[in-house]
Every structure is written in C-alpha cells, then in structure tokens.
Amino acid sequence: MPELPEVEVVRRGLARWVAERTVAEVEVRHPRAVRRHLAGAEDFARRLVGERIGVPQRRGKYLWLPLHGPEPTGSDTAVLAHLGMSGQLLVQPHAAPDEKHLRLRVRFADPTDTELRFVDQRTFGGLSLHDTTADGLPDVIAHIARDPLDPLFDDAAFRTALRRRRTTVKRALLDQSLISGVGNIYADEALWRTKLHYDRPTATLTAPRTTELLGHVRDVMNAALAVGGTSFDSLYVNVNGESGYFDRSLDAYGREGLPCRRCGTPVARRAWMNRSSYYCPRCQRPPRTTG
C-alpha cells in the first residue's frame, strides 16, 4: 500500500492538473470502484457532476478532493480516495486508450482535453463521497493523527504518548491514531537509521532518542518525496504514469542478505504482523528479554 511520500506525490500531481476544475461527467465502469459509497454508483456520479474540485488534501496515507459546488453538497463534502494495493489516479488525454483496469472516469467542463481516471488492477481501492468535519477532513478519517510532515504535528505530545504506550516501537510507528503516514517500508528505514530494533519497547525510549527517531522518519520521507516515492513494480505511479525510484536508495527494506551499508553485516528479514521487518542484526540489536 502506498505510504505518505507516494500519496503526497499523487496529491501534488492532482493539485496541478485537477484543482479548480468543474466536473461535467462521471463514468463508473466497475461497481467496486465506489463500493465504499454506500448509496451506490449512480448516486456517486449524480452528486459529483457540477461540483468544482478544490485543492487536493492529504493526511498521512489518506487523500481527498474537497468539493465546492451547488447545494446540498457545497463545500462540506469531499471525495476520499483509497488507493489500496494497486489504485492509480491518472490524468490522461481524452484520446488516450483506456487502461485495461480502468474503473472510473471523470471529465471536466472546460476546454482542456485531459480527464481523471481511476485505474485499479486488484480492485482493493476506490472513491467515496463523505461529509467533512470543521477541520475539512472527511468524517470517516477524523480519528487519523497528523503526520510527521504536517507543520502542526506535536512532537512533544508524540513523545509523551509513545512512552505511555505498552507496545513496541515499530507497532507505534504504524499506529495511525498516534502518527499517520508511516508504513512498513519507511518504518524499517527510519529504525535502521536510528539503530533501533523493531521490537524495542516504547517505554524504554528517552526523549532524545524519540526526537532522533522522528528526525529520521522525516528525513527518509523527504528523501523519498524528492525522487517520486518508492516503486517496486508498475502498480504505484504518479498522475502521469511515472514510477518513483527511492527503492534504489533503501538501506534496510528489501535488502535481505545484502551487507549493511554501515557495518557490512548481512541484513536480516523476520516475519512480523503478516509483514516482514528488515534490520541489521549488529546495528539494531534486539531488546533483552526478562525472566
């Protein structure tokens, strides 16, 4: 699933090509593309026509398009995009051939010859309309914490919450109610940079250590953003269909058996919560067990 850098790359592309355009036509080509819109495909399409799309927004891994149009939706509604494992929001010329897994098309009421397409090979993603809170968030994600690249992210509150949680550091990084946008890839990368084992209890982290970890989380995400995110296959692309290439710069994730870039010890991989954790056995020593 795309993490914060990949979603932010898509958001920036949408801000350039879709913001301030008015919807003229919506074609839902597969019902699963709008299955989270409980009123159904026809209602989704009808309510979207005539709306003007505002500047796309993001919190963590969640992306949405604010709507500014006629009542009853007006500015209190947004299209929430779930990219899932393979969802792509592409801006394509009208004349471009339809993608094999095209699920939904949005055309606009202006002379520009581009349209917005939602393509999803595995159909785990989708679009849905939601009311927004006073803060402008779709109501279904109001519980999601701010992400570490948000200027309003509270470092001190995060440090306090981390020490109070009876959990381990990687679990905490993936807890979207505590800090959003960090997924498996960037958690492993930040932990490698901080020399922390993924099973380190959060209660043992000092304030300076937590500050260091947050700094590395931000650094690795900003580095990924600079090169378009991480693409291991063709399923993650930006709105122009281009892949990111931060995978070439990864220090831990996906490098099982390769030498640690710091000490030369082969990187290890362990099964972890239906995922994998990659770490250096020497630089990131596991916590001592008691009893």
Sum up the structure in keywords.
about 290 residues; alpha+beta; N-terminal domain of MutM-like DNA repair proteins; Helicase, Ruva Protein, domain 3; five-stranded antiparallel sheet; 6 helices; elongated
What does this structure look like?
The chain is of the alpha+beta class and 291 residues long. The chain has 2 domains: 4-141, Alpha-Beta Barrel (N-terminal domain of MutM-like DNA repair proteins); 155-279, Helicase, Ruva Protein, domain 3. It is 23% helix and 21% strand. It has helices spanning 4-17, 41-48, 155-164, 169-173, 184-194, 207-226; strands at 23-28, 52-53, 57-59, 62-68, 77-82, 87-93, 102-108, 114-120, 126-131, 268-272, 275-279. The radius of gyration is 21 Å and the shape is elongated. The two termini are 38 Å apart.
Write the layout of secondary structure elements.
Layout: H1 4-17, E1 23-28, H2 41-48, E2 52-53, E3 57-59, E4 62-68, E5 77-82, E6 87-93, E7 102-108, E8 114-120, E9 126-131, H3 155-164, H4 169-173, H5 184-194, H6 207-226, E10 268-272, E11 275-279
Antiparallel strand pairs: 1-7, 2-4, 3-4, 4-5, 5-9, 6-8, 7-8, 10-11
Helix pairs in contact: 1-6, 5-6
Q: Name the shape in a single word.
A: elongated
Tell me the number of strands: 11
Strand content: 15-25%
What is the CATH top level name of the largest domain?
Answer: Alpha Beta
Please tally the helical runs, counting DSSP H or I stretches of 4 or more residues.
6
> Can you give the mean pLDDT?
89
Q: Poorly predicted ranges (pLDDT <50, ≥5 residues)?
A: none
Order of helices and strands: HEHEEEEEEEEHHHHEE
Biggest sheet overview: 5 strands, antiparallel
Identify the CATH homologous superfamily of the largest domain.
Answer: MutM-like, N-terminal
Whole-number total of structural domains:
2
In terms of structural class, how would the helical and strand content be classed? alpha+beta
Overall radius of gyration: 21 Å
Helix percentage: 10-25%
